[in-house]
Amino acid sequence: MSNEHYSLHINGTDHQVQDAWIGESLLYVLRERLGLPGAKGACEQGECGSCTVYLDGQPVCSCLVMAASVTECQIATVEGLRPDGGLTDVQESFLSEGAVQCGFCTPGLVMAVHHLLDTNPSPTELEVKEAISGNICRCTGYGRIFAAVEAVVVQRGNR
Amino acid sequence: MPIYTPTSVREATEIFAENPEAMLLAGGTDFMVEVNFNHRKPSSVINLARVNELKSWHLDTQTSVIRIGATVPFSQFESSEFEQLSPALSHAARTVGSPQIRNTASIGGNLGTCSPAGDSLPVLFALDAQIEIASLQGTRSLSIHDFMLGPKRNALSVGEIVAAITIPVASGFQDYAKVGVRNAMVISIASACFALQDNQCRIALGSVGPTIIRCNEAEKFLQDYITQSSPPDLETIREFSRLAAVAAQPIDDHRSTATYRRHAIEVLARRLAMRSFSL
Ligand SMILES: Cc1cc2nc3c(=O)[nH]c(=O)nc-3n(C[C@H](O)[C@H](O)[C@H](O)COP(=O)(O)OP(=O)(O)OC[C@H]3O[C@@H](n4cnc5c(N)ncnc54)[C@H](O)[C@@H]3O)c2cc1C
Ligand code: FES
Ligand code: FES
User: Where is the 2Fe-2S ferredoxin-type domain (chain A) (predicted)?
Assistant: First the structure.
């Protein structure tokens, strides 16, 4: 029952975590122990969304997930969106619409936007705002981000 | 430094009895903030996420009571199915944090933390919710009024776990409203739940006292008008919201001032009551 050693299912692969402290967050384990730095750490209190990953398909703040408690969950990170290392349509759109400035918020926003468009292919402006209300961007002022989301909706033939 | 992952309430209570120093983990949205900032150093943890009995809610159609498992996350109350049964809890849930927070933050964790700003609490107070508490000794049921003792203080003893919360299905208008500095991701500065349950007026206030406050005077005042055939007029509702504001016990703190909070309660109470009588 002791969990100094445990394994996490991340992006379809099992990863071993050795000699961990029980209180380590999933964000810490991903970045510092498993070499998956896609999720970013800024506030470590659930406010900024830059650490967003999926836990059994749902977006969550990985900074507030105790890593040792999710050994039975499917975890997906931004690295797993395109395992071949290419960019998804949402990522391409963020680039072409100028929604990336410093880029710190981008992985978290990309995760939030993919989840939104997978569950609601043609969201209203308010629905987009609600879906990314847990993701803070200090650079863009959000206008370019809304444009990037809209461009994907159009590209996917949903508007 | 073990983490225990029980699969039943019984097993969870056995582990808790053997390891009284263990800390209960639900969604982790309060727990992990404290760990990340070194305010909490768990030596052992009981992870409730795999206890299936705690993970869902059920409607008892015979008694019209909703029984909600402690680890149900707020996102589940946003469904239209749940909203029809309990509009106030559904609307309160929608105001919690962000989508990421609501996917993990549970109602049992809201009771575990017992902050006067907890958004589910005014709803539970307005509806006289019952809290089911499990331990190795068995199960006991406490009224929410006896469960919350003060800011971040509840009636749980060591070894006890919140198993479920029961509330009645809405039998009339009910809603929840809160004021904060922005629309999303905000801890409330003042909040209120208004309900007409079984033809009785109930109003409960959050973030304006050491616990949630039921406004007995305001409720009594409006009750006389509810039982009459003609609905209350605007002047009556103004007096009702004034009485609600009088019941508040707000303080100045880093989020707001007592004066503003009392004013906000008057506005929230008025708006909710007007909505309820379609004024
Ligand atoms: C960014 C952010 C925004 C937030 N916004 C809001 C908001 O708008 N409104 C609001 O009300 N709250 C908010 N919160 C606070 C938090 O999300 C809630 O209090 C939530 O309900 C906690 O639930 P949890 O499942 O995450 O609990 P956890 O963090 O797992 O646990 C919280 C406490 O309760 C105890 N506990 C958990 N489950 C049980 C149980 N079954 N029996 C006994 N004790 C138990 C734990 O030991 C711990 O002490 C926010 C938090 C963050 C980080
Ligand atoms: S680092 Fe997790 S929400 Fe900010
Ligand atoms: S691009 Fe810099 S924070 Fe969003």
Answer: 4-81
| Buried residues in A51-71 as b, exposed as e (16+ CB within 10 A) | bbbbbeebbbbbbbbbbbbbb
Please tell me if the CB atom of residue A103 comes closer than 6 angstroms to any atom of ligand 3: yes
How far apart (Å, rounded) are the C-alpha atoms in residues B71 and B60? Answer: 19
Distance from CA of B237 to the nearest CA of A (A): 32
Taking alpha carbons only, the member of B200, B197, B184 closest to residue B119 is B184
Per-domain residue ranges of chain A:
4-80, 89-155
Whole-model pTM? 0.97
CA-angle at B246, arms to B242 and B250, nearest 5° = 125
Question: Strand B23-25 relative to strand B45-47: parallel, antiparallel, unpaired?
Answer: parallel
CATH class of A89-155: mainly alpha
ipTM: 0.97
Structure tokens at B155: 């009636």
**B174-276 topology per CATH:** Enolase-like; domain 1 (3.30.390)
Is the pLDDT at B185 greater than 90? The verdict is no
**CATH class for domain B3-168?**
alpha beta
Q: Quote the crossing angle between the two packed helices A89-96 and A106-119, to the nearest 10°.
A: 120
Contacts of B21 (CB under 8 A, 6+ apart): B43, B44
Which token pair is B71?
């680890």
CA distance B186 to chain A (A): 9
Q: Which atom of ligand 1 is nearest to the CA of B161?
A: 42
For ligand 1, whether the C-beta of B90 sits within 6 Å is: no
Paired tokens of B208:
């304006």
d(CA A63, CA A80): 18
pLDDT number for residue B1: 54
B201 with B131: CB under 8 angstroms? no
Looking at all shown ligands, the one closest to residue A104's CA atom is 3
Which amino acid makes up residue B134? Answer: A
Mean of pLDDT over chain B:
96
> How much distance in Å is there from the Cα of B230 to the middle of ligand 1?
43
